[in-house]
Prior knowledge:
By secondary structure, the chain is mostly helical. It contains 10 helices and no strands.
Amino acid sequence: MAQPESLAELLNGRRAAVDASLPAVGFVAGWLAFGESIWAGAIAAVVSAIGVSWWRLRKGDKPRAVLIGLFLVCVAALIALYTGKAEDFFLLQLLSNAASALAWIISIVIRWPLLGLVVGTVLGQRTRWRRDPALLRAYSRGSWVWVMQYVIRVAVFLPLYQAGWTEALAAARLGLSGPLIAGCLAVSWWVIRRSLPADHPGLRHPVVDDPVQKAAS
């Protein structure tokens, strides 16, 4: 299979995961430094998110994606301020992982695997990859690895959240971001490579039947 890039190179997931963890670390650091003040934690989280956003924009990331990340941090901070519980800063993260697991499962079942949609968009293929049965099968199998990463996070976050262990939630957020994303990218890439035939030209070159030729046959 003549495909030089890995999923990690195509999606740049490891760096994004580390960047996304910094506001959570900032929240707990501010919360602890000022006598478990949720206001201090919220301010520290938002300031961290603004710093990460500025850095991403300087590196050429799309403004829309950067602003969405900043918006989610602000929402998480507002939730914690509204409830008065520090652990609720991580509630949005818990819910989003549960929703993501469900969304990825549904996408596999209806044969529109999200991994294919993401990679196809990055490669500018739109949905052309879906007309390649081998790629469709490979992306479906690879998507199950992504389902498992979300399930792992929910399994770890939920008991910590229920126990109100804010520091442990931040540690879990950090530990289950960069390392877990890196593992997910590596394993799903291995699954895709093993699922494609040996003579398949790779992710950039879907093998699509010519509809005109197919209709004439």
